[in-house]
């Protein structure tokens, strides 16, 4: 079951959608504001071998130069 992460273009809420089999054609909307305008976020793999006690919380952004100008990468915390 793939989990897709999105960032709402209207309210900037981050949310996840779990896709199960034939459901990958279902309509995706923001759970906070019901907007249909969003960006797909490429998330990083997040796992821990042991508890470190100081894991970072929240969404982080990184800006870089791309062929089309400036691009942003969003790092969304996972579980």
UniProtKB/TrEMBL annotation:
Signal peptide residues on this chain, from the entry's feature table: none
Domain of life: Bacteria
InterPro entries: Regulatory_FmdB_Zinc_ribbon (IPR013429)
Putative regulatory protein FmdB zinc ribbon domain mapped to chain residues: 1-43
Alphabetized Pfam families for the sequence: Zn_ribbon_8
Protein known as: Putative regulatory protein, FmdB family
Taxonomic source organism: Desulfobacter postgatei 2ac9
Source species taxonomy: Bacteria, Pseudomonadati, Thermodesulfobacteriota, Desulfobacteria, Desulfobacterales
